[in-house]
Structure prediction request, 150 residues.
Amino acid sequence: QLFKVGHLLAIAAVINDEEVFGANCENIGFKHEGDGVYTVVKTDFVGGFRKEVNPREGFIRVGKDTEIEFEKLPERFKEEFYDCLNLIENDGQQNIIGFFEREGLNKCMQEYGAKATEHAAWVFKRLEKLTKEYKKPGGMQMMESVIVDL
Prediction:
């Protein structure tokens, strides 16, 4: 599956990334997939997983002092955003825990606890907040509640 701008914004919102694009878009790049198809790639992860970064509701922080308003995004990007939140939710706790069990991650994630289960709980707590904040119009809310019983 191609990584799209809406996906990038959703992941950034979930991990509370404060510089998705960077001041001059230095934190993203594009990979040519062939046949005129390009994928958005994150080249530098700056400030993710920070508890204190709280952009205004309905806004996504994309640079140090730059936010974009979700409602003003193109419809395609909003759909990709919703789809990505669903993908993360449906991926399940075990896969998220597996992600955080990778070697080296505990050191950089100590602020959120020493265990992969605690990291996953933080992600699902953020996911629950975002699915309440960003409801897909014309349809059911993506997720009524995420129960993290780890």
In short: The chain has four helices and four strands. Confidence is low (pLDDT under 50) at residues 140-150. The first strand starts at residue 28 and ends at 34.
